Amino acid sequence: MGRRVYVFFTIIIIILTIYGARGWIFSSEQGDWVGAWSTSMIAPYTDGISQEGFENQTIRSIIQPHIDGKNMRIRLSNEFGSSPITIEEVNVAVSKNEAATITGTNRKVTFDGEENISIPPGEKMVSDPVSLKVNQMEEIAISLYVREPTGPATWHPLSIQESYISASGNHVSDSSASAFKKKEEAWFWLDGVDVIADPSVKGSIVVMGSSIANGNYSTVNADHRWPDYLAQRINQGSEKNKLSVLNAGVSGNHLINSGVERGENALARLERDVFSETAVTSLIFHQGLNDIRHHPEYDSEKIIERIKEIIQACHEEGLKIYGGTLTPYKGSSMYTKEGEETRQEVNEWIRTSGAFDGMIDFDKAMRDPDNPKRYLPKYDSGDHLHPNDLGYKKMAESIDLSMFK
């Protein structure tokens, strides 16, 4: 009898250890894993750095978490790789300035207890918990060292944040920036960061969109995308109902037909970029303008039909979904009168159909009252398609935060 009890409790301890490490079981004292930062990975381009990959180099990526955390873990992705990617060592530290980090904050990252990891093509890996306190006001530097040639890299281009690449060698633990000779506006293999959050954090909201969600034309390295501003609003204004904001924007992405260098279409990437995020509760969806611009043959019914599919998929997953109206684009390239009519029809449906769980009127917030087909000049980046920093801040300010309660 005693041996049976011993075996039973041994099995229970093993199960709790395994599942607890994955973030599936938590004590109320410890808190829950919540996504603090994420980005959407896409396939490598047909040429350039993502196609060439890396060899005997260290890549240091800088990210801005959107919530505080007691501990952290990182996710690495080889989703679009054609062969396994071997990473010799991974370290994290608090970022100081550009590639430099704050001395004494460096931590080794392990995966199932191992420093050296190999990620099969089409797979992701989640690290073990890292004992580093995360502050949403501090950027984190995540450094990867690869010894052997990686081949084409899964990545997120146009990150609006520079990553730093060494000339050669393992420099993951360097606090100095001297070894990092090259800058690249992209994240490589780094898919997301989770933290053990305070119980006041109720989960994460994912923002899905294209270049406007991605923050194109905002100031590089400044974290002035509208999802960044939204995270600041939510977490500075509440002590009880905090939420993380995760960015699933991909520059150039389409609702329906999306090219190789624009990521998979919005419906196809829902599972990977939204449903699989840690502690996700809802989605803010702002997409369709690229389809109107690039496909004049699409009418509003075709675009609305695809949006309905996305709404249904979210509801089947038990998530709320909030729809944002499409912003003005007159004066930009590929503007047409017919496209404008389609945009207006789609926006009318978003405003009045009741299909979404809530509506955000980005169009109203950004347009010029005297010329409503155009941006208000002070919000225009200059290309008449993307906002500037002030415009992105205005987008975040136009969202009624009571929806998320």
TrEMBL record:
Source taxon at top rank: Bacteria
Gene3D superfamilies: SGNH hydrolase
Domain SGNH hydrolase-type esterase: 208-393
Signal peptide extent: none
Keyword Oxidoreductase: no
Keyword vocabulary terms for this entry: Membrane, Transmembrane, Transmembrane helix
TM spans (from-to): 5-25
Keyword Acyltransferase found: no
Name of the protein in its database record: Lysophospholipase L1
Species for this entry: Halobacillus alkaliphilus
